[in-house]
Write a structure and sequence with these properties.
The chain is an all-alpha fold. It is built from 16 helices and two strands. Strands 1-2 form a two-stranded antiparallel sheet. A hairpin with a 2-residue loop joins strand 1 (about 185) and strand 2 (about 190-195). Helix 2 (about 15-25) crosses helix 10, helix 4 (about 50-60) packs across helix 8 and helix 10 (about 210-225) crosses helix 16 (about 300-325). The longest helix is centred in the C-terminal third of the chain and has 24 residues, at about 300-325. Residues about 1-10 and about 120-135 have low confidence and may be disordered.
Length: about 325
């Protein structure tokens, strides 16, 4: 609780409400074996919705500051002139330190899941005054040598739950105005920034709250919507990623190949980024600067937000199923 309240405003990814909703929604599409493995990896007192919001807290600790860039990819496109797009070589930091690289690496770490139980109770550091661990050179080193109080599988699962949500937030795929963090807007008469509006204020306004109960209700509604979607919509959500991924995993010893994981994450980032032009800045950057967003702008974003959160939960379930079983477990229409 102290950590949550100490974070500066505007620093969180998709706020707690969308992240919890995405994780809860994913559980409705998990294969039984996947659900069992996830329950084994998580400690008994940690729900999947709590695990999904942990990544933001960790990135604001001295030990986890290195993980901050994993929450976004800075598309150096040109939404001011209605040109959007994500390019990995141009937009991802060194060593794959972006949300795409993060998804690829945590996926690799989880295959196959290491079911070594967490130490309970979590032991304190042997020397609380010891200096911080030297930063390893590669992202994979961070993930394979997690903090002393966790296991590689628990650490990577928490990050995967979070990053699959982040890659479906439009301003986590955009560099302009630091992903909207430095673009002043107003919401319900109060000063804020565009990134915070999209992370938290817009979803919370649309759902009339931000508690775990609100997340559960939203997940239930989205599940009902998804199960009645036309086949063409599910095929669009599956994109080029899902149709052949079971075969590729089977040919790779049951594991998602890294190049396929990269292609999938890039496809998701590009889809999300397209909304930067088609909605977030649809009237231009100058038009949104200083604008009150709590009314028409928020209400007109309802279908978009529902789609991205629903899509994220559905894709997360398929991804977790693949990691654990090599099977997607989803109806692709």
């Amino acid at each position: 609780l102290l950590l949550a309240t100490s974070l500066p405003p505007g620093t969180l990814a998709w706020g707690q409400l969308p992240h919890r909703t995405i994780a809860l929604l994913s559980t409705r599409f998990l294969l039984p074996e996947t659900a069992t493995v996830i329950r084994t990896i998580l400690p008994k007192d940690e729900t999947i919705s709590a695990a999904a919001i942990w990544g933001d807290y960790f990135s604001h600790t001295p030990e986890g500051r290195w993980s901050g860039p994993l929450h976004y990819i800075d598309a150096h496109d040109d939404p001011e002139n209605a040109v959007c797009g994500v390019e990995f070589a141009r937009d991802c930091a060194d060593e794959g330190m972006c949300v795409v690289g993060g998804i690829v690496n945590v996926t690799t770490q989880l295959q196959p899941p290491d079911l070594t139980p967490l130490p309970l109770p979590i032991p304190p550091p042997t020397n609380p005054q010891r200096p911080p661990r030297r930063r390893p050179h590669h992202l994979s080193d961070h993930l394979s040598t997690p903090p002393h109080w966790t296991t590689p599988a628990h650490f990577s699962l928490r990050l995967l739950l979070h990053l699959l949500g982040d890659i479906h937030q439009p301003l986590h795929t955009e560099n302009l105005s630091r992903g909207g963090n430095s673009l002043h807007v107003r919401f319900s008469g109060r000063d804020t920034n565009l990134h915070s509006a999209w992370d938290s204020l817009i979803p919370q306004t649309l759902r009339h709250g931000r508690t775990p109960r609100h997340a559960q209700l939203w997940a239930d509604e989205l599940f009902g919507t998804i199960t009645s979607l036309p086949p063409a919509t599910l095929r669009r959500w599956a994109g080029a990623c899902f149709p052949d991924i079971e075969r590729l995993a089977a040919d790779n010893g049951g594991k998602i190949p890294q190049d396929k994981a990269h292609d999938c994450a890039m496809e998701w980032a590009r889809y999300t980024n397209s909304y930067v032009c088609s909605y977030v800045f649809k009237d231009g950057v100058a038009d949104i600067r200083g604008r009150e967003l709590s009314g028409e702008y928020t209400e007109n974003a309802r279908a978009l937000v529902d789609e991205l959160v629903g899509m994220a939960g559905w894709r997360l379930a398929g991804w977790l199923n693949l990691v654990v079983t090599g099977k997607l477990g989803l109806d692709l229409g």
